[in-house]
């Protein structure tokens, strides 16, 4: 059984400085509670159980899937993602010697006894990831008809499990991935392309595992928790086609290498085999259960807010679109709360999750979607009637890595941006930074970046707006 004493903790660098008042401290506590709740140690303890050699897995939808381990000759573990190492370690603690072999690919390694933790890179694939993916696929293909394969899938798995198709090179894959990520395409669109350039994504791993049974355990980092999108769906039927992937490349004007466009065009013409679709025999013995998602983090953050006497409100777990624009809506909600007590009366905490994106130009600066969200929110708060009321906004990527930076995101308040000498950032300079997608230097100079290091999980973005108590403006405050 899992060790109930294990209590994964997230450490925010310079926490004392960031938590300089109660609202800022609460924002930090909501963020860290959300991340910790989605850590595989907690997830395995909450969602998995073992009794009489029956493994039971309860998903976020409340459905329970069971497997009789005594019915199998071997139990193998494969996996990929930012949290795959931590996931494997937690599953090992539960199953112990019942695991016969295993291999997972991650960029956040941990010590394990039975499952090999192999290196990979994120957000763009590497040679190390390709070799690791080959080892994972070889282990999967070694599974026999009387074996059970546990597939541990977490955010970041698409880049980490890099197994290019036969006619696509690693450089082709890397160049295409970088262009897709810079284009502002949704994760579903990005993964539709990656699936059709891979030997394992889009159900390819399930095809390798067959005829063995497979039980996928997914920590979701995608809006809507579609198993076909999480880690590019290595254990799930792929509803997209080569033509769909080609459409993404064309629509977003991706300057893809010739090998990529040639493969997609040949696939669209029927000259390259499609990824396995629903009804394919490869999925006869496969089940995938989502065991943690953005709601896992939101629920934990909501509990912290309520325990402190704040009224929590979850806007959505599916916020998406351009980071800068999404931040304007969140700031407007905070302003409405302060002005008229609607949709929730202060003291309140407004929460959201999902995945915002940034469409980069030809010469972008440095930063990530969460930093850009926070900086945009700071401008909106400064421009609004709520400026000076102590409203705080924190936005983080729960894996601790916002874009390609060393920060998880940022924590800002309505006193960060303005034209007075007491404000750390001038409004004009901040708007220029946003226009150049150069949020990182501005936030770093203002001491607003949140740094956690790798957190051991990934359920995408988590955003917290804290609106302190006070009379509403309609009741006569300034």
TrEMBL record:
Keywords (alphabetical) are: Pyruvate
Residue ranges of domain MOFRL in the record: 349-461
Residue segments, region Disordered: 1-20
Q: What Gene Ontology cellular-component terms does the record carry?
A: cytoplasm
| UniProt domain MOFRL-associated: residue ranges | 27-265
Question: Which residues, if any, are the signal sequence?
Answer: none
Q: Which Pfam families match?
A: DUF4147, MOFRL
Q: What GO molecular functions are on record for this protein?
A: glycerate kinase activity
Q: State the Gene3D superfamilies in the record.
A: Glycerate kinase, MOFRL-like N-terminal domain, MOFRL domain
> Which protein, by its recorded name, is this?
Hydroxypyruvate reductase
Please tell me the species this chain comes from: Halorubrum coriense DSM 10284
Q: Tell me the organism's taxonomic lineage.
A: Archaea, Methanobacteriati, Methanobacteriota, Stenosarchaea group, Halobacteria
